[in-house]
Specification:
Bound molecules: S-adenosylmethionine
Structural class: alpha/beta
Number of domains: 2
Largest sheet: 7 strands, mixed
CATH topology of the largest domain: Rossmann fold
Helix content: 25-40%
Number of strands: 9
Strand order of the largest sheet: 5-4-3-6-7-9-8
Radius of gyration: 23 Å
CATH architecture of the largest domain: 3-Layer(aba) Sandwich
Strand content: 5-15%
Length: 375
């Protein structure tokens, strides 16, 4: 049961927040409540509780508060429009907005689960708690990926499709594409189906319930995937918002490579001779793959700065891996691109124990430093 209910005076189980909500409601009763003020209140409370931005907008909590307020009031998302900011709020409207703030803070629910929508490449996708909130920055290079393919049958496979945001975006970029969205989770595919309908793509985009390639048939020009690749070690340090997303969508085993390894060796079978595999595998896996398959012409691609991104965030580092010396360690995350002929025939178990040890030790030192700084 939500702590905030319309006819109930309990706005929050947290005393300080409850007090803040009540005083805001009394301002609204006196016909003095404004959208701008409720956003300021939400922002302050979220900042105090050190809420994780969960990749929203420019990682700004003000934008989170503004989005929830605008969503609740069904206003266009023009967070800085003075007409909307100065709009007055009645008590009922304020209660609804405060209810959303409280759920975001107390339950640490990602914003997209509260609004049941997420924007990806400027389009609004339906999402719920069965899918990862769409955010793969591979989208910053979609046009480049499509441009380099020698098309044979125009078939594209979005493996580990979740909400379907990647495959659907590609289908909308090129009307000749026939796209299959594959996922092991039937619940995730229900969300993908909604999105296929939403963008009127049922003639060209199909959902397949499949454990990676187990139920996939035929060959594709492009296999694109954002599989789970968070290692068990990394997962335990993730903020609560991330842990509200399905673990199935994130966890990739002890070293995060369980799914990546399988895709890496099985994709060959499902690609046309000139087809390519594009997979977001994270920084650690990109390096591990390079280590395991030193002779494979594997291309690492960094994300590009999205048009709408601000100064903060990982996309400050814009570079192509191929332009950089391999040892450069500034890249935070990454995508690998590999042509079919280059893909390995079998899995290499070669590991890099020294690097893993260094990685774990540096993480430990970072955490100790943070602990001593904060205490
Ligand atoms: C990181 S999410 C990516 C979702 C979406 N493509 C995106 O970028 O937002 C990974 C997805 O892989 C799916 N998955 C996990 N294990 C799988 C498997 N063995 N076979 C197919 N899909 C799997 C999960 O259900 C989840 O939807």
């Amino acid at each position: 049961m939500s702590p905030v209910e319309n006819n109930n005076l309990v706005l929050s189980r947290n005393k300080k927040r409850s007090c803040a909500y009540h005083s805001f409601l009394s301002v609204c009763r006196a016909k003095q409540g404004r959208v701008n003020a409720v956003i300021r209140l939400g922002h302050t409370l979220m900042r105090k509780e050190k809420i994780f931005h969960h990749f929203f907008a420019d990682h700004s909590l003000r934008a989170v508060a503004a989005h929830l307020a605008f969503f609740s009031l069904k206003l266009p998302y023009e967070y800085d429009n003075p007409v909307y900011l100065d709009r007055s709020l009645n008590e009922e409207e304020a209660r609804e907005i405060l209810g959303l703030f409280e759920r975001r803070i107390a339950e640490r629910l990602p914003l997209a689960y509260l609004t049941q929508e997420a924007t990806y490449l400027g389009r609004r996708f339906y999402v719920n708690e069965q899918v990862l909130v769409p955010r793969s920055l591979m989208n910053t290079r979609f046009e480049e990926f499509l441009a380099r393919i020698s098309w044979e049958n125009h078939r594209v496979l979005d493996l580990c499709a979740g909400s379907g945001c990647i495959g659907i975006s590609l289908a909308l970029m090129n009307p000749r594409l026939q796209v299959d969205l594959a996922d092991i989770s039937a619940e995730a595919l229900k969300v993908a189906e909604v999105n296929v309908e939403r963008f009127s793509l049922s003639a060209r985009v199909h959902c397949i319930e499949s454990d990676l390639f187990s139920r996939i048939e035929g060959k594709y020009d492009l296999i694109i995937s954002n599989p789970p690749y968070v290692s068990d070690y990394e997962y335990q340090w993730q903020p609560p918002e991330i842990k509200k997303e399905p673990a199935l969508a994130l966890k990739g085993g002890v070293d995060g490579m369980d799914l990546v390894n399988r895709i890496w060796v099985e994709a060959r079978e499902y690609l046309n001779p000139k087809g390519i595999l594009v997979a977001e595998v994270g920084y650690a896996a990109t390096r591990r793959l390079k280590w395991r398959y030193p002779r494979v012409a594997l291309e690492g691609v960094c994300y590009k700065k999205p048009e709408e991104a601000g100064k903060k965030g990982i996309w400050k580092k814009i570079a192509r891996w191929s332009d950089l010396p391999f040892e450069w360690s500034g890249m935070m995350d990454g995508v690998v691109v590999c042509e079919r002929e280059q893909l390995p025939l079998e899995l290499s178990r070669k590991n890099d124990p020294l690097r893993s040890w260094l990685f774990r030790t540096s993480r430990l030192i970072q955490r100790l430093c943070r602990f001593f700084r904060e205490n």
